[in-house]
UniProtKB/TrEMBL annotation, chains A, B:
<dbReference type="InterPro" id="IPR036921">
    <property type="entry name" value="PurM-like_N_sf"/>
</dbReference>
<feature type="binding site">
    <location>
        <begin position="130"/>
        <end position="131"/>
    </location>
    <ligand>
        <name>ATP</name>
    </ligand>
</feature>
<dbReference type="InterPro" id="IPR016188">
    <property type="entry name" value="PurM-like_N"/>
</dbReference>
<comment type="pathway">
    <text>Cofactor biosynthesis; thiamine diphosphate biosynthesis; thiamine diphosphate from thiamine phosphate: step 1/1.</text>
</comment>
<feature type="binding site">
    <location>
        <position position="54"/>
    </location>
    <ligand>
        <name>Mg(2+) 1</name>
    </ligand>
</feature>
<feature type="binding site">
    <location>
        <position position="287"/>
    </location>
    <ligand>
        <name>substrate</name>
    </ligand>
</feature>
<feature type="domain" description="PurM-like N-terminal">
    <location>
        <begin position="35"/>
        <end position="148"/>
    </location>
</feature>
<dbReference type="Pfam" id="PF02769">
    <property type="entry name" value="AIRS_C"/>
</dbReference>
<dbReference type="InterPro" id="IPR010918">
    <property type="entry name" value="PurM-like_C_dom"/>
</dbReference>
<dbReference type="Pfam" id="PF00586">
    <property type="entry name" value="AIRS"/>
</dbReference>
<dbReference type="InterPro" id="IPR036676">
    <property type="entry name" value="PurM-like_C_sf"/>
</dbReference>
<feature type="binding site">
    <location>
        <position position="53"/>
    </location>
    <ligand>
        <name>Mg(2+) 1</name>
    </ligand>
</feature>
<feature type="binding site">
    <location>
        <position position="83"/>
    </location>
    <ligand>
        <name>Mg(2+) 2</name>
    </ligand>
</feature>
<dbReference type="InterPro" id="IPR006283">
    <property type="entry name" value="ThiL-like"/>
</dbReference>
<keyword id="KW-0808">Transferase</keyword>
<keyword id="KW-0547">Nucleotide-binding</keyword>
<dbReference type="GO" id="GO:0009030">
    <property type="term" value="F:thiamine-phosphate kinase activity"/>
</dbReference>
């Protein structure tokens, strides 16, 4: 009888770590492999190609009972472009592979690709290839994205230095609260299909969940301001989880301030309505696709008036001290509770 | 009531054509998009990056009741490398995304990745990224591959010229017959689990099905011989189907000779045993992953002694006359019967 270990015991990150452990790079053009938002491949002496990929599975990553398929197409591209933005680079090409069951009509596929094309247009990305096949159940979307950057402009998770300033863009927790709202309305609808949900007050959060944007604008703004982030990552699994990626890769610790964490007022109010702590939602809710990055103290002045960049804390040298300072001045250890599809 | 058209009516190629129709390229680095074995992206003035992707779905592309998962990992990489070989280029990096249900153990994933790593080593390709997620049913593998070539060395489907010689490598129909053998043994086993199948005489074909190799060796041999194919494609859907891709893209016609089509003697004998026509199997059986290419007449001398390259016919200018000359000298129109997962 063969030994059998369950993947749920390892979890998604454990499995990735396990698979990553056996990998070595042999081509001189493979500069950086697994472990950041994108792989880095040498193109010319001073320019690199970035390569990243994401897979979205129906029933795991999206629920078509409330996600319009056009938005799903847009979001699939946006989250991939976000991985390139997180390297401080510009996305240029994508490939899109889909597997779909006969539940899907040609019109549904058209709507999905209309969303994909809209995102391509919005981000200046070309759809250059893909694969189309049938599946035995549901829809699977696999996108790969190629980006480009000057070699010395690429921002890694590992570059955070002591005394750097921690920055985050936009606001957090909105996409998570949007998901809560959509899930609740689905239950209400299932119980009574005649109920007309009043979604107006949740519009912002639902939009954050259904149609997130990659923050390419920030990449351009930083370039224009002459600021190269010392480290960067996109917020897909939640602020806390991404902070841990940065501190682990950089060998540092972080201190962040509760009152600096950007939360939209509707997100705040809706969290309270759902009996959830708004700060916990901002720390651990995923899918905002904002950028989290560190900058040298010397650069702070250059972007201090940017309306969408928030300074939330700083980097220090005590590796295992990652803390949140509450509004009351209490020091609370940070915990990563990023989403794990195998455990979830 | 919304209009609903079935994808099965369009078929896989129809769907791809439909999706492709709306795509335009905007980045100057996007040299060639959808429509060949790989997209072509400018890297330097004289060097290009090739990008291709493939998705394999359990129950559609493979059956784990007779495919060892280690071989599946190897094959997933090989078929992607084959797409780069088909551009007359060298594969350098891949990303591997998998979605898997809790039916799969950690040991099964380890075996899959052992196969993936073995193929990476065999082809000198680096695994640089990927995604790992859960699925509601079965295993899905999505691989993207990046290759590299001098811009003037890239071979497209569209370059076949009148009077060019048609070449094919290895032998054809073996992978298809291997699949027939495996499917028959599965039925025998299901009927009586105590039956011990005698697979020895089918070993070659089963190997062709389970562990195909990308013909990177041919790419190197052609380079060494100083031969640049005028057009090239890999044989994944069957010789006839690939010939039609070349003639359609190149605006030419082809004439091939039945007695020149390379068929291994065990493939021939097994086809007869299965009451199948061996030539039909070679023409329409897929998954051999050999290379089909055209060369200028002037280059024929340079590779005429290559033991694994066969001259099967030539290119002419009558676009709609694609014919097979039988051993008896009869002229038969070629028909493409490539596999269609949506119709099949």
């Amino acid at each position: 009888m063969e030994n059998r270990s369950e993947i749920s015991q390892l979890g998604e990150f454990g499995l990735i770590e396990r698979l990553r452990g056996n990998v070595t790079l042999t081509n001189p053009t493979s500069l950086v492999g697994i472990g950041d938002d994108a792989a880095v491949i040498q193109a010319t002496d001073d320019e690199c190609i970035l390569l990243s990929t994401d897979m979205l599975v129906e029933g795991v990553h999206f629920d078509l009972s409330y996600v319009p398929i056009h938005h799903l197409g847009y979001k699939s591209v946006a989250v991939n472009v976000s991985d390139i933005a997180a390297m401080n680079a510009k996305a240029e090409q994508i490939t899109v592979s889909i597997a779909l069951s006969n539940r899907f009509s040609v019109e549904a596929v058209d709507a999905l690709y209309a969303g994909i094309r809209a995102a391509c247009e919005s981000y200046g990305v070309d759809l250059v290839g893909g694969d189309t096949t049938s599946s035995t159940s549901g829809l699977i979307i696999s996108i790969s994205v190629m980006g480009r950057a000057k070699r010395d402009q690429i921002a890694y998770r590992s570059g955070a230095k002591v005394n750097d300033i921690l920055c985050v863009t936009g606001d957090l927790g909105g996409a998570f609260m949007g998901l809560q709202v959509l899930e609740r309305e689905k239950q209400v609808f299932l119980a009574d299909p005649n109920m007309q949900p009043d979604m107006e007050k949740y519009e912002y959060m639902v939009g954050r969940q259904l149609k997130p944007e990659a923050r390419m604008d920030i990449v351009y703004d930083l370039l224009e301001a002459g600021v190269k982030p010392t480290s960067m990552i996109d917020v897909s699994d939640g602020l806390a989880s991404e902070l841990f990626h940065i501190v682990k890769s950089s060998g540092v610790g972080v201190r962040i301030y509760e009152d600096k964490i950007p939360i939209d007022h509707t997100t705040y109010e809706t969290a309270v309505e759902f009996n959830l702590d708004p700060v916990t939602c901002a720390l651990n809710g995923g899918e905002d696709y904002e950028l989290l990055f560190t900058i040298s103290k010397d650069d702070q002045e250059k972007i201090k008036n940017h309306p969408d960049i928030h300074f939330i804390g700083y980097v220090h040298d005590r590796k295992d001290q990652n803390v949140l300072i509450t509004k009351q001045g209490t020091v609370v250890p940070l915990r990563a509770q990023g989403w794990d599809h195998f455990k979830g």
